[in-house]
Amino acid sequence: MAEDAGEGELLEQPDAADIELVKVLHALGDPTRLHLLGVYAGGGRYDCSSERLGVGHLHKSTLSHHLRIMRRAGITSTRVVGRNRYVQLRRADLDARFPGLVDALVRALGAGRPGAGGGRGPGG
Predict the structure, then answer these.
(1) Dihedral angle computed from the Cα positions of residues 35, 109, 107 and 104, in that order, rounded to the nearest 10 degrees
(2) Strand, helix or coil at 122?
(3) Which of 19, 29, 74, 120 has the most CB atoms within 10 Å of its CB?
(4) Which pTM value belongs to this model?
């Protein structure tokens, strides 16, 4: 998790009122992105280190692709600070648009992991 992400430039993302359930669910239909939701649900801002996100097996461009899909669906926001990017879950926006959805997904993630506690991914 990034300790000092500063403000930086917020990358383009849909307004909260424009987040669509179909796009959110489509984005989360991929196991990697669903895993990332579990990581980001832990709160805070995360840098884009594949190892810290628990997806060290992914190539940098593949991780960028997954993060872009999540941002465009309205699931996450990304800030650019210098050469770094910091991602966080748009929890308040998602909870306002689709009450209980994030909690249900995180619970389902936790139930699917042997010995999982709370559905948080690595680093979360």
Answers:
(1) 70
(2) coil
(3) 74
(4) 0.83
